[in-house]
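Continuing the series of single-chain predictions for the mutant panel. This is the parent chain; the variants come on the following pages.
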Amino acid sequence: MRAIILLLAAAAFAPGADIKTDDGWVRVKELKSGTEIRIYKKGAPQPLLAKAGDATDDKLIVILKNAETAIDKKDIDRVDARPQGAKRPVTKTVTTTEPTTQPVDGVRPENYPRPGGYSSSVSVGSKPDFETIYQRRAGAK
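Parent structure:
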């Protein structure tokens, strides 16, 4: 029994074993190109708003103002991403008024009805909020 446990433990820690990590950088590397992201850099008062380009084990390539820029992973405290594929709610409003034969300015038209009206509007809801996908572990350099 002891040999089986040792064998399983050795297999779990063998090189190349798929060990689940709480690093979160894997999620950054899986971002689709063009995803809206917010990057919090060390010591920066405001986050950078950019679009994801590509990510390696030690760099994040982003698009800022139509130019590609690489940011070292060690300089990033947190990365937030806007969810892909979320539909924005669209509301359409249509208002119509019926023609009438009511007097206009005290004068009643004989055979001419007052024309009706029609108005419409479309409003698009806001984008989904950002979600944190990577955050530097406490004490990490």
